[in-house]
Amino acid sequence: MFVDDVDAPILADDDRHHLARVRRIRDGAPITICDGAGRWRPARFGDDIELEGEVVVVRRPQPSITIAMAAVKADRTSYAVQKLTEIGVDRIVILHTERSVVRWEGAKSAKSLHRLQTIARSAAEQSRQVWIPLVEGPFSLADIAAEAGVAIAERGGSVVNLSTPTLLVGPEGGWTQGELEADVPRVSLGPGVLRAETAAVAAGVLLTALRTGLVRGHAE
């Protein structure tokens, strides 16, 4: 469970309810507490959290991996955020593109972003991630393209590699010709046409697998 401070842990009311009422965790049962920023330690559940063992510090993996995607309809954006969190992506950015159907504006933007951040936190707990990914946006393509190490996901591009750990995934209608003329390289996620949320998850899987050494890069 995530807490603000692993040295003086206080469970949020919703988390305590989940453990006690939904999971039926008894007092004294072992749990793991984490601050979502790489620090965790064993503890025991109860009215007051009983600390056990020393704090373990886990460095954030490098390079930092960002997946930027256009928001899509229904719960498919939420699905992508959940899965990207589970596989260990460090940052998830919502994009406004020329063909975006879903656009966040005004109060809707803050509300939608908060919902995705809550989904990421829950997914990080479920998958035992010690880092909660940063979820932010909406940004324009120009905002993200100006960063270092950025590539656009597009059929016919080069092989995914860690020299471009920030991948941009377009909307269901694809990138416009003007967007494809941005001064960033293109990488391919395969020969087929993927749904936006599938492309985002595929990009995250490829990059995190390369970073952890689960697969070897093309050059190797």
Low-confidence stretches: none
Proportion of residues in extended strands: 15-25%
What value does the average pLDDT take? 93
The rough form would be described as elongated
Helical proportion, percent range: 25-40%
Global Rg: 19 Å
Strand order, biggest sheet? 7-6-5-9-8-10
Major sheet: size, sense and barrel closure?
6 strands, parallel
CATH C-level category of the largest domain: Alpha Beta
CATH topology of the largest domain: Alpha/beta knot
Number of helices: 6
Number of strands: 10
> What is the element string, with H for helices and E for strands?
HEEEEEHEHEHEEHEH
CATH architecture of the largest domain: 3-Layer(aba) Sandwich
> Could you say which structural class the secondary elements and strand pairing correspond to?
alpha/beta
Domain module tally? 2
Written account of the structure:
It is a single chain. 31% of the residues lie in helices and 22% in strands. Helix 3 links the parallel strand 6 and strand 7. The chain folds into two domains: 45 residues, no CATH class; 147 residues, SPOUT methyltransferase, trefoil knot domain (Alpha/beta knot), CATH 3.40.1280. The protein contains six helices and ten strands, in the order αβββββαβαβαββαβα. The N and C termini lie far apart (39 Å). Helix 2 packs across helix 3 and helix 2 packs parallel to helix 6. It has 220 residues and is of the alpha/beta class.
